[in-house]
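TL;DR need structure tokens for one chain.
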Amino acid sequence: MSTLTVSDQHVTPATGKVIQPAWVRAMHWTNAFAMVLMIMSGWQIYNASPLFDFLEFSKSITLGDWLGGALLWHFAAMWLLMVNGLAYLAAGLATGRFRKKLLPITPTGVVSDVKAALTFKLAHDDLTKYNYVQKLLYAGIIAVGIVIVLSGLSIWKPVQLYWLSALFGGYDVARYVHFICMSLIVAFLAVHVVLALLVPKSLRAMIIGR
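>> reply
TL;DR here they are.
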């Protein structure tokens, strides 16, 4: 959602130009809604069988009140996220959006943009282009999303999908993989929201498209 770009040569798009198509906006907010439901219900599920003795999530930020209720919320949000996520991937590939927005990603470009960001020299005048850090983060979160879905399925159906569970090293390992992916998504969302608030016109573009 953040629209930072290192180049100062880009021209700010003309007023009225569509920056975020309607299908992108609809799928973006649907994904966000589904992810929040899955994270909050997932924390309640985690509390029922913690992976770490020192970590328990407050009931004020969980969903479902109890294990059974949390599972119902989690599965309902799972189907929404899977269907919408697959549609988003298909549309992104079919329209060439991923290729145009996320490629290329080069180590030199990433290092350059990180340095620019740390010295507060990362411009954000062109909402239509992503810098290299954004490209890396967005491509990475797509990959994390795929892994968290697959690890979640292996936890949900460890017998029926034994081959998938084995791919992750077994049920117990799959739980840790699922937790790590969840943590990465939460961290991404936190950074994503902060950057969007720092560049409010990018948030406006994701709401009204312009």
